[in-house]
Amino acid sequence: MRRGLLLLALLASACATLPRADLGTSPPELAHWRDAVNGPDAGAEAVQLLSGYLQVNTANPPGNETLGAQYLAGLLQKAGISSEITEFAPGRGSLIARLKGDGSEKPLCLLSHIDVVPAEAKNWAQPPFSGYIDDHGVIWGRGALDMKGMGLLETLRLNQSRGVPASRLCETGRVFIERNGQNYECAAVGFVIAEPLGARTWLPCAPADFYTAKQHASALAAAAGVDLARQPLVPIEGPYYGWQEGHSAAAGEMAQGWAVRFGLLNLAMVKALGVEGKVYAGIVSILPEKLASAESRRRYADFSLLPAALRDLALVVDAGVQAEDVRRTLAQTARAAVGTAFTLEAVEVFDVYQGTGLPEGRKSLAFSLVFRSPERTLVDDEVNAVLQKIQDEVTRSTSWQIRK
Description:
The protein is α+β, with helices and mostly antiparallel strands and 404 residues long.
């Protein structure tokens, strides 16, 4: 067995019983793996193994993960490690390999996907499936960062160890989710947001928190055609996929065609991986057929250089009514009132109030309405007339009251 073999860094899926402490405390039967990782030629060999792996075209679609699994299986066989490849469809294989420990510690699972997103060679300085190593030691190939080399947390750990300030990372690809014995292949996007360590800035930024992760997850879900604001959130309980209990949430199920998870990653897991500080993350997974069509997602809209006309409107509603539901209804009513005369540019909540001056069980929601014309400056009379039509329709068609 060659000393410098670094298969543990490349396996698509592997399980081993390794101590959580320093590798130097490994039991005798795992000592040769410690020497392989720490050997003087380990870095050079890891580069060559990764370069060879990148030359296997596993772009999805169609996937062809079996080709990548066979490449890794060949390396494992040379190292004396048995493995198996299972396919859920022709050419769509997964590799499973195991290293047995002494049973004194809990199992450790290394898991990553073999497929990569498609690549257009014309947009690459080097062929995307060449595994080319340039004069600076940079490896070129689709999957070098996602995910034939490492995952988001591994990348984050590498950045921290090298003093690289990038602490907000994301990746896209295909993932498989098993529910009730059925496998679902989903389009997915994941992200991590770590505490910036040692950053020197003249204006400190507010630290990320649960709501930062929720905001990012909501924006990604919206791009896929899912309105997360209208979905019930369920707290994630127990050690569920590495989330911190009480600081993470889930929405959706594969029965609906999509699933979202976001929040704080498990603190013990993050520490064990060698990542410093708290890490917030999220993942949005959706069946390809559930994705909103490209035509339904507006990428760009012309904007006017003429001034906007601003109006405020406060509504008194039941305390249990969600502000977003009111905002949507108000926006629909306002667009109907405007017609083709000019444009309703935005409707946003800027204040929520409960207390003195309002009946019990009621709250006040204050909205800002932005009107604009692409051709002329709006005058007060026409804007006020539209605002009056909006108020009249709200009073007629809802139980909400106009707050004066």
